[in-house]
Every structure is written in structure tokens, then in C-alpha cells.
């Protein structure tokens, strides 16, 4: 599943850490990787059967974005080895859509995907930061708050004693 959020100003790494803590609280083994413009959080259940059968698949959440945009990809992929991770590997990461996993596990996985998206949206609402240089609306002072110069017609601040344009006494 891919989802894009606009007008969102979050620290990707902090969002990833919060998401990782939430997954740990649900009983998952997790890892978080940051490479270039990406933050990847992976989560998998561990157990004796998974170890025996070499199940190396994990829920994978890839976060990217900037300039008020957050891109989220959620799906299944192989558990990544930190030593092998490069930005190209993360960018080309192949997600198996959860709908392709068959059987009873499919419904369970789709529910987890929905829960992950809901948690991301909850975290966004808690941590959404304003951009550092947010454009300010133009403020036009009202005319009664200004002194208009009789010589040149310039609008001066109310406390001005001389025109800021021509220097004439107000």
C-alpha cells in the first residue's frame, strides 16, 4: 500500500522511532534503517516455526519525503541486513502487496497494514511541525493607524513625527 500525505512536516527519523516503539509494544522484533532520504522500519514475529522454515519476511514501512510531503509504503519484504543496505537498495525495495498472501494470514496481514497506517496518521497528528519559514499573510495596517504625509501622501506609522518618505513634519 502506498500513501502520500501533504502539508505534513515531520521528522522522518522521529516518526520511524515512534512507529518502531509502537510495533515493539505489539510484540514484534523490529529494526530501523536510515539511508539517504529514506527511513525504513521493519517488524516481524519470531518463533520456533519461523526459525525452522527460514521465514525471513517482515512488515516493511518505507518513509520518505520533504517540503511538506510524506510518502509511506507498507508491505512485505525480506528482512534487510544493515550491512547490505544502500540508498539504491532501499529505493528499489520490492514490496509484496499484502493482498497476494493467501489464506487466513491474508486477512490478518491486511488488518495489520490498516493498523500501521492508522498509527502513522495518529503519530503525524501528534508531531506535525510547522515549516521553519512559513509564509506569513500580508498585513495591511488600517488607515486610521497611520499618519498620512500632507506633502507627499505617504502612509507613516502612527508614532512618526516626520514623514519617512520625504522628511516633512507630520
TrEMBL record:
Pfam family, one: Zn_Ribbon_1
Species: Sulfurisphaera tokodaii (strain DSM 16993 / JCM 10545 / NBRC 100140 / 7) (Sulfolobus tokodaii)
SUPFAM superfamilies recorded: Zn-binding ribosomal proteins (SSF57829)
Domain Zinc-ribbon: 149-170
Gene3D superfamilies, per database record: 4.10.1060.50
Name recorded for this polypeptide: Zinc-ribbon domain-containing protein
Domain of life the protein comes from: Archaea
InterPro entries, sorted: Ribosomal_eL40_sf, Ribosomal_zn-bd, Zinc_ribbon_dom
Single GO BP term: translation
Amino acid at each position: 500500500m502506498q500513501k502520500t500525505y501533504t502539508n505534513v512536516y515531520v521528522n522522518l527519523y522521529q516518526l520511524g522511532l515512534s512507529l518502531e516503539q509502537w510495533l515493539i509494544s505489539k510484540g514484534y522484533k523490529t529494526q530501523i534503517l536510515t539511508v539517504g532520504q529514506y527511513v525504513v522500519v521493519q517488524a516481524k514475529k519470531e518463533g520456533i516455526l519461523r526459525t525452522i522454515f527460514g521465514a525471513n519476511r517482515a512488515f516493511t514501512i518505507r518513509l520518505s519525503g520533504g517540503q511538506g510531503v510524506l510518502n509511506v509504503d507498507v508491505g512485505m519484504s525480506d528482512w534487510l541486513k544493515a550491512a547490505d543496505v544502500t540508498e539504491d537498495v532501499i529505493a528499489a525495495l520490492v514490496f509484496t502487496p499484502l493482498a497476494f498472501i493467501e489464506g487466513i494470514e491474508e486477512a490478518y496481514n491486511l488488518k495489520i497494514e490498516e493498523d500501521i497506517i492508522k498509527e502513522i496518521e495518529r503519530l503525524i497528528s501528534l508531531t506535525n511541525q510547522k515549516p521553519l519559514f512559513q509564509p506569513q499573510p500580508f498585513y495591511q495596517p488600517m488607515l486610521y493607524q497611520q499618519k498620512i504625509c500632507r506633502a507627499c501622501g505617504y502612509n507613516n506609522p502612527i508614532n512618526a513625527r516626520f514623514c519617512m518618505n520625504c522628511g516633512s513634519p507630520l
